[in-house]
Design a protein that fits this description.
Blueprint: E1 3-8, H1 15-24, E2 30-36, H2 47-61, E3 68-73, H3 77-84, E4 88-93, H4 96-112, E5 117-122, H5 132-140, H6 151-160
Parallel strand pairs: 1-2, 1-4, 2-3, 4-5
Helix pairs in contact: 2-6
Amino acid sequence: MAVAVYPGSFDPITNGHLDVIGRASGVFDRIVVAVLENPRKQPLLSAGDRVAVIREALAATGISPERVTVDSFDGLTVTFCQRIGAGFIVRGLRAISDFETEMQLAHNNRRLAPGVDTVFFMTAVEHGYVSSSLIKEIASFGGDVSEMIPVAPSDRLRRALGGR
């Protein structure tokens, strides 16, 4: 069984993330969306909220919860992969600028865990400009982000930003 981990902060999850999850679920037998609990970052949403939001968003898309699960982790992604028996890391690429950083991570992960390989999925063109950071910035100034994120996180995002 080919198991892949799709790691990220997902603060919040975007339609681009969902696009990558949907396409990766057609390639791998099982995908684990892995929410990083990074103590060096101050996320807008707690890890528990991010996990719940992702589960809601996946349910709304009709993606099978038996094939795509959501968990949280801290530490190295490859350690998490080894712990759950995943042989692949899924990463999404929006633009050429993402590739250099992602390539460095992939090479480092391969050195740390030779049995874990990284697979890249290009985000669909309509989501290529979207990032969680950009969404938070737009929302913090009262901008409409409804076309960039699924409905589930939009409610929590609005509450986290103080109802703006």
